[in-house]
């Protein structure tokens, strides 16, 4: 790891991480490290959103995604991996790597992540300014978080892997049918990167959600911000709804060997 101020190596002691220039960062009693510096604007998921997401994910609705990610990554024998925008660590906790880091800008999310998973190092930091030196990680993952193109390319070692999970076309379509007059399919765009796409697949599952799960799911989506209260009331009135969860999983490799 590197210092977010001067980019020199960070040495971890019991309670602090310090660089050779004396920049020091406290390791919380819970075990996470806060590497945010004041010039970085803090946003990210608030506590209510983190709680809703955890409640939903703990019921295992998306565990088929977690299993599939692990099946794809396991054969790669990964030593070091960083989960970028890890949230409360639901996916991070089971990723197959000897050394795992979970990075998120939300303190509420990171606090929850450390409570459950003591083996990974969780960091409060920006995924657009990663506290890792160049070419120091074998794999990065981003599950439902923004794509930090430049930083991923910088921190990945040669032939390192990047796994991206994003909503596929029909993800949560039935939820949008309730909320909006003209529901739309999610647009799928090729990723703007010169890394090589080595694997791509779409997986899906139908979930019969009771109202409580449905409302938690709604809270963890961007729709919670953009929906008129009148329309969200329609969801509240439903006893249950069958909803499609559909994910696009893409695996990229940095400097993949090109056949002659
Ligand atoms: Zn420093």
Can you describe what's shown?
There is one protein chain. The protein has 260 residues and is α/β, with parallel strands linked by helices. It has a single domain (40-253), classed as Vaccinia Virus protein VP39 (Rossmann fold, 3-Layer(aba) Sandwich), CATH 3.40.50. It is built from 8 helices and 11 strands. The protein has helices spanning 47-58, 63-73, 107-116, 149-155, 173-179, 211-219, 223-226, 229-236, and strands spanning 11-12, 16-18, 24-26, 33-34, 78-84, 97-104, 121-124, 137-143, 156-167, 196-210, 240-253. It has an 8-stranded mixed sheet, sandwiched between helices. Helix 1 crosses helix 6 (211-219). The longest helix has 12 residues, at 47-58. The protein is globular, with a radius of gyration of 19 Å. The two termini are 36 Å apart. The model has no long low-confidence stretch (mean pLDDT 92). The structure holds zinc ion. Zinc ion binds at residues 3, 5-6, 8, 19, 21, 23.
């Amino acid at each position: 790891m590197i210092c977010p101020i001067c980019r020199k190596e960070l040495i971890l002691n019991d309670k602090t991480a310090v660089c050779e220039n004396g920049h020091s960062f406290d390791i919380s009693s819970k075990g996470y490290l806060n590497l945010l510096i004041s010039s970085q604007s803090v946003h990210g998921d608030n506590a209510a959103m983190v709680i809703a997401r955890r409640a939903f994910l703990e019921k295992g609705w998306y565990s088929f995604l977690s299993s599939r990610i692990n099946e794809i990554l396991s054969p790669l024998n990964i030593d070091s991996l960083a989960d970028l925008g890890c949230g409360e660590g639901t996916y991070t906790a089971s990723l197959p790597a000897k050394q795992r880091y979970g990075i998120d800008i939300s303190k509420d999310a990171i606090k929850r992540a450390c409570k459950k998973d003591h083996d990974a190092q969780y960091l409060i930091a920006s995924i657009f300014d990663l506290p890792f030196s160049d070419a120091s990680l074998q794999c990065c993952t981003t599950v439902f978080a923004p794509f930090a193109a430049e930083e991923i390319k910088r921190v990945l070692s040669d032939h390192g892997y990047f796994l991206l999970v994003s909503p596929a076309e029909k993800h949560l379509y039935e939820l949008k049918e309730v909320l909006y007059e003209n529901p739309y399919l999610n647009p799928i765009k090729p990723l703007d990167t010169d890394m090589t796409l080595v694997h791509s697949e779409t997986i899906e599952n139908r979930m019969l959600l009771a109202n409580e799960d449905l409302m938690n799911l709604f809270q963890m989506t961007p729709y919670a911000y953009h929906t008129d209260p009148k329309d969200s009331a329609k969801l509240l009135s439903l006893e249950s709804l069958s909803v499609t969860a559909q994910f696009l999983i893409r695996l990229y490799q940095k400097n993949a060997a090109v056949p002659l």
